[in-house]
Amino acid sequence: MKWQPASFIPLGFEMNRAMFKDQERQLKPLLDQYEKEEFDRSIAYAMEYNSSLKINVWSDGYKETILYKKSISIPCISPRNIDK
Fold first, then answer.
1. What pTM, to 2 d.p., does this model score?
2. Per-residue pLDDT tens for 51-61?
């Protein structure tokens, strides 16, 4: 069995991946009153003006980015739909 000693390599890669992922963990951010108000303002603005919104969410030590795109669908108007 010539290649048997190299069988540990996939396990080593998996362990390295887990180690590097743990290094990316962050503490839960503490938001002050101003940051909370700014967060609320940006959500209200996006809702009022139908714009997209990018939110970074902390989840179990990692940041996740959520992109909310609000699209407005305008119905197609054909001459047959217009009452004369």
1. 0.53
2. 888 888 888 88
